[in-house]
Amino acid sequence: MKRLIACVSVMACSLGQAQAAGDWLVSGFGTVGAVRPSDSQVSLLRNGINTPGRDGIDFGADSVLGIQAGRNVAPGIDVTAQVIVREDQTGHVEPRVAWAFLCFNPLASMEIRLGRLRVPFFMYSESLWINYANPWVRPPTEVYGLNPFSDLDGADLTWRSQLGQYDLELRPFIGRSSLERQFKRARLKRVLGLNATVFRDDFSVHVGHAESPLSLPWSDPLFLAVDGALRQSGQGAVADQLSGDSGYARFDSVGLQWDDSRYLLSVEYARRAANRYIPSAHGWEVTLGTRLGQFTLYSVLARQSQDAPVSSAQLPVAQLQAGLDLFNASRNTAQRSVSLGVRMDVHRNAALKIEFTQAKVADASMGSFFPVEDSGIVLLSGRRINMISTSLDFTF
What does pTM read for this prediction? Predict the structure, then answer.
């Protein structure tokens, strides 16, 4: 907590300097969130975001603070930077650059950005850290846990056009991404992707595709044990499927949103296909909401299913097969859940959310959870886990 307070102080000083300069447009956002699972032996794990809590109430899964600044440096050229503070998977809480890019507008209908961007893998990617803009306490992990990479160091191009009563937006992008993890970094070495979005009044449809060579080096105790046993028994080819830097992954997403200021409908489907290191899987979510004055009532159904394990090898030795099956299961995050929540807009720039979730972890899976230290749990197969989550989201 002391580190978090220190980081907030540094960012506050930066904000004051930017405002004093008079030529930057500065804004900020944040979330103070807390989650408590009903099972004291597990904690919520948001893939690629937080470190599992030890037990009790966890503030690290959802809390975030961000400051964004932008400036016009020449006609048709802008610079934007965004710094956020939140817990990461290494357990550190410190500022990091989420956005830092130059934006060029060569045409009224075209925008080119160069630098560090948000990877637009999902329908809500651009607002993922700004939770005030989202209906939930957190995006459904069954969908948004499929791809934990958030930053893109590269470029994108946005082209907008009107087709009759519809507005069309196309966004090709290219770059690379890395993800801090507890042991070693994961990397997308060369991301190529294209998003298309169609808008009309209160309705929008999003379609996206991306693919990249994948580097994912595991080094946790379970992997080391399984990898060592496989190599000692002459199954090095199988061991090479579990960890390394020669993988390839594809990601597809389709989303639909309708919001007329009274009713809200959000539907999203995403699929991850990988040839090694992580399982191939797909997930979907359906959100329904209604606004009653300053209150928004919402419900969410979500599910993630595994399509293929990390390795489908059939080994001749039962003990080796058991070890491989355990490794496969430990990387499986399949589950289904139902959530009920309420959002209260307590201020024009602040919202309080309370959400109840019941999750059912799939067989041979960890779901979106992780055993607390010294719990003795290896897998969470078949467990029903309830969660109470709250968040105070704000912008300034």
Answer: 0.90
